[in-house]
Amino acid sequence: LDLIQNVEVQAILGPQKSSQADFVIELGDKAQVPVISFSATSSPLSSRSPYFVQAAQSDSSQVKAIKAIIQTFKWREVVTIYENSDYGSGFSTYLIHALQEEQVKVPYKSVISLTATDDQIRLELYKLMNMHIRVFIVHMSNNTLGSRLFLMAKELEMMSEGYVWIITDGIMNHLDSMDDNVIASMQGVLGVKPYIAMSQKLDSFTDRWKRKFHQDLIIYGLWAYDAVWTVATAAERVETTESPVQSQGTSNNLTDLTSIKTSKSGQKLLDSILSTRIEGLSGDFYFVNGKLQTSTYQILNVVGKGNKEIGFWSSELGVSKELTLSVSGNKTYTVSVTNLGSIKWPGGDSFPVPKGWMFPTRGKKLRIGVPMKGGFNEIVKVDRDAKTNKIIKVSGYAIDVFDLVMASLPYPVPYEFEPFMNPNGSSAGSHYEMIEQVYLQRYDAVVGDTTITANRSLIADFTLPYTEGGVAMMVLNKHKDKKSAWIFMQPLTKDLWLTTGAFFILTGFVIWVLEHRINKAFRGPPSQHVGMIFWFPLSTLVFAHSSVISSTHPNTYNLF
Questions:
Q1: What are phi and psi for residue 237, nearest 5 degrees?
Q2: What is the pLDDT of residues 123-147, one digit of tens each?
Q3: Where do the domains of the chain lie, and which CATH numbers do they carry?
Q4: b/e map 415-445, b = 16+ CB within 10 Å
Q5: Distance (Å, rounded) from C-alpha 396 to C-alpha 479?
Q6: What pTM did the predictor assign?
Q7: pLDDT tens column, 488-513
């Protein structure tokens, strides 16, 4: 306020933090003085005042990069962890809205106070540990708070296999300045930060910076340098021939905003700044709607004592393994895991990719009830020790189907089978009583040959039957010969007729063999013998031949 009232500045470079921005933005708006911030990244700030210029990548742009990472690995649920400030809450709002567009749920938001103690952080991590979600997105501007968070996560074994941690540029930009023990606790973490193309100008400036200050230059320093040059370039183009400010009052009270001086050339300088475009240390530096133009983001993996580049994200190409500076040909926006380099996940392994969901280590197993009845053991069979009554194995077709369904889920679900039986090993009741246990919350589900009936469907939900679904209809078969007198002959097929005839001939031949030597009726010329073989079995349909047969083998004849 003193600079505006007494020094009569025409532009303000700052504030450095989003939490400090509200007052300075209001001050610049009252005095009509452009406020240019190179480190306040909160997205809602740019809409507070037309005199505020965001010379840093806004959080809304990195939200798109993080959303692309979630899409790439097809995680369906995430938890956001952010500091309790406008910087944190503003980012969380943008992120949740972007993820909801892709049907990604954020069932829980972990908000950590900037003044949180170690016990408070540890308690919050315990909450996350007991949840089933294993994908965490961390957004913090305070690298000290972020360092404490990851040290305690490592202590609680939350940096192990199955977990996914994604950090925004608030922590990623300060990674090089963190202690070795903090970086060691962050192994396998994914992160994003704006990509800055290397150039001879940048190399020369960085070398001079390190020689003078003996520390690395972070990206906010590059934006600050380019912002100063942009303001200086814009100011040279604005000509002023009169006093740059006009007074709104005579009060000398620096806390009285009603008497603050206003800039006559503020609007001209603002327009000049917004239209200035330079080739700065950070690359092509210019503003779009009061914000620094959206940049390409690096996707990084914390490995060893630093980070490893695994890919890039841009608004034109999506996720890519290599940076393409110009979009041409058939390039399209894609998000595919094949477009990224190898990733070291928490726990030290590159494969498999974490599923992002698992039952908490302290969680209970699902209780699956199975019927304890004899009969069709192919459906469900419970093997138990007759002496100890201990269940040895549960098997069967229904069990196999259930096991395959559970194995196909994109996350592990522990469960155990509990036979519905009495202490003596007998069935504890009917199928309805077993299904009722689901309604009473004694079982989480029931597997077996349970028929779907109306009364059962009132107390439990059923899956589709194992048999193929469909509709069948029975109709009367209309045959054109149904009024014929010979309709009774239709079941007698050709094969049946041939078989019957063969047995008749076989019967006649056997009787002839037994009778022709001792019975005169079976003697004569050969034609009579053949005729007797065919005639005798056929004639038995209407005549009794007990007097004709003289052989002593009546049992054999009766058989035939």
A1: -85, -10
A2: 999 899 888 899 999 999 877 899 9
A3: 2-56+218-292 (3.40.50.2300), 60-195+295-339 (3.40.50.2300), 366-457 (3.40.190.10), 489-559 (no CATH)
A4: bebbbbbeeeeebeeebeebbbbbeeeebee
A5: 44
A6: 0.65
A7: 777 788 888 899 888 888 888 887 88
